[in-house]
Amino acid sequence: MGMAAQTNVNVKKGNSKSIIKFFRETKGELKKVHWPNKKELTKYTGVVLTTCLLMTMLVWMIDSGIGFFLKLILNR
Predict the structure, then answer these.
(1) Are 11 and 19 in contact, with CB atoms under 8 Å apart?
(2) Residue 24 half-sphere exposure, CB side, CA atoms within 13 Å?
(3) Opening angle at CA 44, ends 42 and 50, nearest 5
(4) Backbone phi, then psi, for 24, in 5-degree steps?
(5) Which of 17, 18, 29, 40 fits as disulfide partner to 36, beta carbons 3.0 to 4.6 Å?
């Protein structure tokens, strides 16, 4: 039985100790996370937005190209 299934079984039985343990472990894991500072967050946001813009342009160009060639083929 998987870990998620085991957790659900414990919750169904009303085992409050497992719920408390889950939240303690979650809190411990969140302390290990490297949270970006403002400078890093701004940099990462810029990278994501730039990547989205470039991918949007790429998909638009491919779509326009395919549309152009389909019009050529269908108008014959």
Answers:
(1) yes
(2) 6
(3) 100
(4) -65, -45
(5) 40
